[in-house]
Write a structure and sequence with these properties.
2 copies of one chain form a homodimer. Chain A is of the alpha/beta class. Chain A is 37% helix and 27% strand. Chain A folds into 2 domains: 5-72, Arc Repressor Mutant, subunit A; 77-269, Rossmann fold, CATH 3.40.50. Chains A, B: GO terms for molecular function: DNA binding.
């Protein structure tokens, strides 16, 4: 089958965009579109240009034997600002306040459309160039972490909160979640993480950082190295967290019985 | 800013492909690309052609006031066959057999690349034209269900397995999971599902169907209508399941202590 330039461009965009951070060789495209290398190289230049002009992320060419083309999702500051402001507007609805000053957020953090954007945002602010996988803890962080792993083209690992899991031998640790003020257990099957891995931790919400601290401790048991961590929302109080260097996209400034205020993190949108 | 046809085609493909099943108006594109309606209409014809020629799904035009263009992910029989055969090859590795004849599958069912393909596959075989949301139960089905919800452009709802959830008032039911042979509880916050919704149930694994039956029962409590259900793998035994009409992509024919056999479901790939 023969393809016109327009059609090749459309096809290349679709293929790259469906698999962020995956390297496609020139030969892959020459075979797919039955075209010469020089033709495909020209096509790719045009594709690069489209992504740049439309602020859709970056398309880069990697030289050498293992070389090829890949698409790196990158959210511009303006788009980040718009997304986070929209999220805050939705979160700051007093109807979301639950007994015990919890926030009802699952409609947002389970939304495929929202998490796919937030995943690209994490991939824009967390350096994952050395990372081997994304790690999260069940349940509410899973959609965000999956979207992040997808944007980073990394496997996802999910820590379980109980030990009744049938996934072979597991490593467990105890941790204290500040919000619940009690000792809990988190476990991870041995098979699911190689010793010495470099990992990115992702979760939905951080108050004191007890859960993330637990995740860090569990990673130590796997001799894994935490090379980045991100949460969607962190609370301003307590100011001192149990973990350092966590990127938070939103700040929960205050929550009362009848009002709540969340703002985008200045470091992310400035 | 002015765009060449090539660039517009690339941009339109990226935008449609990033948001499956979302309707974009012609005006959205005329503004984005600073071009006339007739020009954009021509572009869209080319985009339709690309998707068809490359078997990437369908792009359709909807007439009328609420009209526009949308991309419908659709996996061809050949691609489905290839994907499911590859999955079986990976699953049928005796190393995956765990004590108690469980199968270690989390590296596959948590893989962003795999679930995104499986999600499109569910969207190709389950009729979701009337559906309001995708419903799953924690934990292992979540990535599959999120990818499915994404392909269908529907919100995701996650049923929890414990009642210690801080999401406001919840509805709970008891169910018997055949594989564990004990009574368990599943809960869903009232806020998270509108009464009378039409839902698609997605899970990773079905043995007797106890969990899916529980999900159906919980849906009844919400006066919700189950309009479709799908699992990645169902076991051949027991032959009689507690639920009917569930689409299973793979069949687990047998699992012994040292060998396992899974095959693609003929109904899906034939």
């Amino acid at each position: 089958m023969k393809f016109k330039r327009n059609e090749r461009i459309g096809g290349i965009v679709k293929i790259l965009s469906d698999s962020p951070n995956k390297i496609f060789t020139l030969s892959y495209f020459t075979q797919k579109f039955n075209a010469a290398k020089s033709t495909i190289s020209e096509d790719i230049l045009i594709v690069k240009n489209v992504f740049e002009k439309l602020n859709l992320g970056k398309v880069i060419t990697i030289a050498g034997a293992a070389g090829g083309v890949k698409y790196i999702p990158k959210v511009s500051r303006e788009d980040a600002k718009e997304l986070l402001n929209e999220l805050c507007e939705q979160i700051n609805d007093p109807e979301r306040i639950l007994p015990g000053k919890f926030l009802y957020l699952i409609d947002l953090i389970y939304s495929p459309q929202i998490v796919s954007k937030v995943g690209k945002l994490f991939a824009s602010y967390i350096d994952y160039s050395e990372a081997d996988c994304v790690v999260t803890i069940e349940t509410k962080g899973i959609p965000l972490a999956l979207a992040t792993a997808n944007a980073m083209n990394l496997p996802l690992v999910i820590i379980r909160k109980n030990t009744k899991i049938s996934e072979g031998s597991s490593l467990s640790i105890n941790y204290v979640s500040a919000s619940k003020e009690k000792i809990q257990t988190m476990s991870l099957p041995r098979k699911s993480l190689k010793e010495g891995s470099k990992v990115i931790l992702i979760d939905d919400f951080m108050r004191g950082g007890g859960t993330l601290k637990g995740m860090e401790d569990l990673m130590k048991e796997f001799k894994a190295d935490v090379v980045g961590k991100g949460v969607l929302i962190s609370t301003d109080t307590p100011q001192e967290k149990l973990v350092e260097g966590c990127i938070s996209l939103l700040r929960l400034i205050r929550i009362e019985n009848d009002s709540v205020e969340t703002i985008p993190n200045e470091d992310v949108i400035m």
